[in-house]
Amino acid sequence: MLQQPSTKYRAFAPVQLRDRTWPDAVLTKAPVWLSTDLRDGNQALIEPMDIERKIQMFHTLVRIGFKEIEVGFPAASQIELDFVRKLIDENLIPDDVTIQVMTPAREELIQKTVAAVRGSRRAIVHIYNAVAPVWRKVVFGMDVPQVMALVNEQVSLVKRLTDAQPETEWVLQYSPETFSMAELEVSLQACETAIAAWGEGRPIILNLPTTVEHATPNVFADQIEWMCRRLHRHANASVSVHPHNDRGTGVAAAELALQAGADRVEGCLFGNGERTGNLDLVNVALNLYTQGVHPELDFSDIDEIRRTVEHCNQLPVHPRHPYAGDLVYTSFSGSHQDAIKKAFALRQEGDIWEIPYLPIDPKDLGRSYEAVIRVNSQSGKGGIAYLLENAYDLELPRRLQIEFSQVVQANMDANAKELAAADLWALFRKVYHIDDVATPQYRLAEAAGQPLSIAADVAFNGQTLKLEGQGTGPIDAFVSAISQATGQSVRVLDYHEHAIGAGANAQAVAYLEMRFGEQETCFGVGIDSNIVSASLKAILSGMQRQKMRQAGSSENTRHTADNNLDKLAA
Description:
Blueprint: E1 32-35, H1 37-43, H2 51-64, E2 68-72, H3 78-89, E3 98-104, H4 107-116, E4 122-130, H5 133-140, H6 144-163, E5 169-177, H7 184-198, E6 204-210, H8 217-231, E7 237-243, H9 250-259, E8 264-267, H10 281-289, H11 302-313, H12 334-346, H13 370-373, H14 378-392, H15 398-415, H16 421-431, E9 441-445, E10 452-460, E11 463-471, H17 474-486, E12 490-500, E13 507-516, E14 521-528, H18 531-550, H19 557-569
Parallel strand pairs: 1-2, 1-8, 2-3, 3-4, 4-5, 5-6, 6-7, 7-8
Antiparallel strand pairs: 9-10, 10-11, 12-13, 13-14
Helix pairs in contact: 2-11, 4-6, 6-7, 7-8, 8-9, 12-19, 14-15, 14-16, 17-18
């Protein structure tokens, strides 16, 4: 690193806005949300989504409550075009949802983009061109008048093409790309040019991005207030922001921009996007929620949403991610635990939420208090996982680590002694019924074009159950068979497996996180020389643990933690 970075880097000049009002503004309503997971988020993936994952993501966004969804860049590739057409041709777009498609300011791409959404009920065409000095000079070789001529020409083209398709309700979105690095007068001129070319009385969204975040959020807020003062005189124009996260302040930039007058925000679930990511819409929405403002988006099952996004993006959500990470409601510090317990003991139902170290009630997001009431110290949890892995080759998933650490902590509280690796292994085998669950006898059958079938004889609860079911694989078919036989819904939420040992004596271990009916989740663990058998034993392990929980067994620490919580809440 340079000793004098000022010889290489230039500080961004502040906006001269002496009478700024945004610092005193209070957010009292949700903005218009635009998800760009299927466009900006998708183009940032190492492996872009196929159509199946795109459809799954689209349905998830609709269920959450997004009314505007950027569905792709149809001029970019055939898969993008096919996906947009599938949404329209198969009537997959709800009447209250508007799709958005994006195109650069190039004639042939605009024509292809407008044609791609033919027949849609309502569509936003998003056109953009970069306006900042370095892009004008280095990338495009244009001066400001040439940039304005380009904006006028290409927006006028969009107008002509969309006028020829009156069956669709059209909205234009114009983005002066690189807005936050451009002169405000140039950005304003570009927006005014787009408004004039589109037509004063027609709806238009003016999207002002931090294409590359390079200044503090207060500077961006000043830029937005400066623009809003001049653009809000156009009755049919709304101001949108599209922050990126290059400086790690994308959420702050969005919130201050809303205070400065923006009406709308664009981003992705959990902040996926190029470089350091787009704006994290989950974070902004739930920040509003904790201030008593409903975001008009539903994150009441945050874990299911996270799992879907991880599957579609093939990227993990960090365990410390605000609101959604596995560890964000877990306090490892003893003083933190003590404060949380005291607050729960005093809290009455209906009280304002005031719990130390918990800015939001985890139950509002579909989480339980399991990691709050009984938590191990960080070294304790890490030490348990380390000893089991090094002594017995067990690679416990993180959420299983949290679950089992509660068992260990309860045991240590009761016996007041340190547990060695052998003690941990014995406790693990007991809690997860490793030695109690017999290998089920099963037969698999699969015909071309048909689901896989399973027939199994299972020893459980002193009986032999004869099970039959179908599914996409052995686990799915076995779970389906159990659900049919017991009349209780069984869902597998997460699955991990690995080998123990090597060679002829190698075994497989499977860890399955399951939910039985409306009950809380629990893990089952199975070990066998055959991976399918290990997986089926893990399901039976989870069933046995659920049975013990329902019977009031004290061996299950999660059940114990729930009882502790009931006492505290009372």
